[in-house]
Design goal:
alpha+beta, 1 helix, 4 strands, about 20% helix, about 40% strand, globular
Length: about 80
Amino acid sequence: MDKYSKIEKYVVASDVCSRDGIGIEVYSGNNMLLEVFRDDTKKTREVTLYKKELDLELVEQAVALFKKEIPWEFQK
């Protein structure tokens, strides 16, 4: 079984306009399901859900993918 089998599509995205950080956005088709974001200003890592109920395995895979793709250290 693929390590990220529940993730249909994801994008690594940075945001320096409204926030200062980087994260991954997980999609099903064109709909964003969740975002895992490292906020360098607040020095936090957050998960935002854009769908009310999500499969726990999908959320766990998204967090694991975030840890693989995004540097853990805060910038600044």
